[in-house]
Amino acid sequence: MPESNHLGVNTLSDFIRIHVGLSDETRVRIVNLLLQRPCRVGEIASALNISQPRTSQHLRVLRETGLVAAKKQGNSRIYTVDCQVFYRELLACLIRLRQVCRVLQEDLEQLEKNHTKESVST
Fold this sequence. Notes:
Blueprint: H1 12-21, H2 25-36, H3 41-48, H4 52-65, E1 69-73, E2 76-80, H5 83-100, H6 102-121
Antiparallel strand pairs: 1-2
Helix pairs in contact: 1-4, 2-4, 3-4, 5-6
């Protein structure tokens, strides 16, 4: 998968892929740091008191999900989260999922049916 700041959430499986990326406490902590500012692997490892190889493994997963981007700078990489893209995409994903995911559409329809029944009975 290309290193990109676009999450590309168009299907339920994309949504799940992103949440799998955030399903690990260490990865959430890494994203938290990167939401503050761009960092090198060593900075992240030091801040979280974990090894650089372990940090790199987590960053790889985050890059594969599109949550984190890496930019080569000299001999190292600078990892970033584009906050605007990150928040916009996460907030918009449920709206897009409603349009393409039958299960979510059915949930919304059932919610409205139940609401209509309750409104009529009161």
